[in-house]
Amino acid sequence: MDNDRPIFLQIAELIENSIIDGSLVEEAQVPSTNELAAFHRINPATAAKGVNQLVSEGTLYKRRGIGMFVAGGARARLRERRRDRFTEQYVGPLLAEARKLGIGHDELMKMIDSFGAVVGRDLG
Amino acid sequence: MTAVVTAHGLTKRFGDVTALDDVSFALAEHTIYGLLGPNGAGKTTLMQILTGQAFASSGNVSVFDAPPVENPAVLSKVCFVRESQRYPHVYTVRHVFHTARRLFANWDDTFAHGLAADFQLPAGRLVRGLSRGMLSALGVTVGLAARAPLTFFDEPYLGLDPAARQLFYDRLLADYAGHPRTVVLSTHLIDEVSDLVERVLLIDRGRLVLDEDADDLRGRAVAATGRAEAVDGFAAGRTELHRERLSGLVRSTILDGLGPHAKALAQTLNVELEPLSLQQLVVRLTAPPTTVPPTTTAPADREAAR
Amino acid sequence: MNRIRQVVRLQMPAWPQIVGWTWGMTAVAFGINLLSVMANYDPGDGVTNTGGLVSLCGVAIGMATVSVTQIFPYALGMSVTRREFYLAWSLLAVVQSVVYALVLCLLRAVEQATGYWGWGMRFFGLPFMDDANPVLLLLGYAVPMLVVTHLGILLGTLYLRWGTTGVLASLTLTFTALGLAATLITWTRQWDAIGRWLLDQSPTALLAGWPVLVAAAFAVGGYRLIRRATA
């Protein structure tokens, strides 16, 4: 776990990532608080706080006595929200560093294209 | 929150020495606490008073709504695993388990023997013949298998190798999940337990200096590194705990450094921010006043130290 | 009561040692005394009194002290209260005294049946109680045992409370007080009166009556000390 952010947020984000990348599909059961605590070696109360945040945001829902499940439409909503934050989280720092190093607009675009080609993940 | 322990104005003096100085706090039901602080801060004394093993000079302590001293109803729900626990000369590991089974109401014999096997504790060996690590493993086993509603571990890891410590943390978490209780873990290996504890109590020189959620303490302090003027600009108006320098570079440890605008400000000033781990934060908060090394006597430092 | 029984059982692992040392050392004292009697044997002497039981009392004091100082810190660590611990040890003192007294009665019977071990040596028999009934005889052995066991417990609690210094200081104080009392008695010429008083007492009162008060005083003292003791 990172030092700079509360663990419960990191747990919530880990579950969100699993939903976004499809490893947790909609209506699938999410690991229990105790399973999360044991796996990540964290306090169960902290894990519960992370899960509860996702419940209150509507990403997960609770079936009494059974456990937590991924809500319908959760993936689409999460993707939408992540897209909104993408600019601030990734584009901003990228442009700031580029400016510092004197990398111009065209050069930057070329770098993105050629790097994407190298790792085989063309954004097109 | 249901309070299991409350302490008001707890003070303990040994002659001229004040081991605990007006300490007040509450411990909630079903919570794992980290009791942190340097050696001699008063952690063991505090736990001894909470378990009725020592007597407070003044102040009030209530455990399960009653004073713990000589109170069988309270103490039957309490287990205190001391690093320096003494065992009778003739006792073997098996004797300890037998007596623990009779004296702790929730004792789980199967769990105890499972733990003993995991830690490779020889049941027939005399306790005084155990190595330091095995002695710690015995204490840990008793503390876990007793399943007391209020359990104290006072530096339970002495002599335990990293694998055995990990085993202890894993078993604690797993058993805590099935049998929630209040656990107080006094330790110096803060990085190892910082994800495990829900709340932190920090004691320094007999005083309680922190009583907060462990998660809230994450990112509470940052190390800001950059050129002196830039760091000065960033540190202005914030609480600086510590400062180091290397030629033109300054690293300042700042408390409550990560406000909403801090990151943006740091970016503008070209200051690198690095969050402090709980252990680093504790070190900075409890560092004794040191003699000032010659490199930090420059005018800028005196200003920073204000 | 159930709790006290569980606390009593904390001493169980030490029983082989306690019983072994106590009676082993008594056996050694018996052997040495017997050798000494045999070496100086003269059939015309009648029965020699050895006072060998003093060694048993000495060992009993030591065993009680060790048992208290060894097990108390452990008991406290197992969430036992000082009160529970002390009640358990007082109960142990009574049980142990009665059991030891029974053994001594038996050994006394053997002693008499063998014609004082064939060499005219009285080791286990009590003075003045040759014609006592069995109950009084048992008390005559048990009560002094209770006194010495409680003395041992008291010394143990002194150690728990104030350490070695506390024990030594208390012994010094006690011996000083006894010495001063003796001096005072001599000075006021009261030894005769005390001697007469002692002669007026029945052997039962001397062995099983007054010592009960002494044991009680030791017990109360030990209890008061242990209530503020820390491990």
Keywords:
heterotrimer; A: 124 residues; mainly alpha; Arc Repressor Mutant, subunit A; two-stranded antiparallel ribbon; 6% strand; elongated; C: 231 residues; two-stranded parallel sheet; 7 helices; 2 strands; transmembrane (chain C); transmembrane helix (chain C)
Description:
- Chain C: It comes from Herbidospora galbida.
- The complex is a heterotrimer of chains A (124), B (306) and C (231).
- With 124 residues, chain A is mainly alpha-helical.
- Helix content of chain A is 62%, strand content 6%.
- Chain A folds into two domains: 7-72, Winged helix-like DNA-binding domain superfamily/Winged helix DNA-binding domain (Arc Repressor Mutant, subunit A), CATH 1.10.10; 75-118.
- In chain A, strands 1-2 form a two-stranded antiparallel ribbon.
- Chain B has 306 residues and is of the alpha/beta class.
- Chain B folds into two domains: 3-217, Rossmann fold (3-Layer(aba) Sandwich), CATH 3.40.50.300; 221-305, no CATH class.
- Chain B is 34% helix and 29% strand.
- In chain B, strand 11 (239-246) and strand 12 (249-255) form a beta hairpin.
- The longest helix of chain B has 17 residues, at 162-178.
- Residues 294-306 of chain B have low confidence and may be disordered.
- With 231 residues, chain C is mostly helical.
- Chain C has one domain.
- Chain C has helices spanning 2-8, 15-39, 53-77, 82-113, 134-187, 191-200, 203-226, and strands at 48-49, 121-122.
- Chain C has a two-stranded parallel ribbon with strand order 1-2.
- In chain C, helix 3 (53-77) packs antiparallel against helix 4 (82-113).
- The mean pLDDT of chain C is 90.
- Chains in contact: A-B, B-C.
- The A-B interface holds A 1-8, 33-34, 37-38, 40-46, 49, 93, 96 and B 30-32, 169-170, 173-174, 176-178, 195-198, 214-216, 218-219, 222, 258, 267, 275-278.
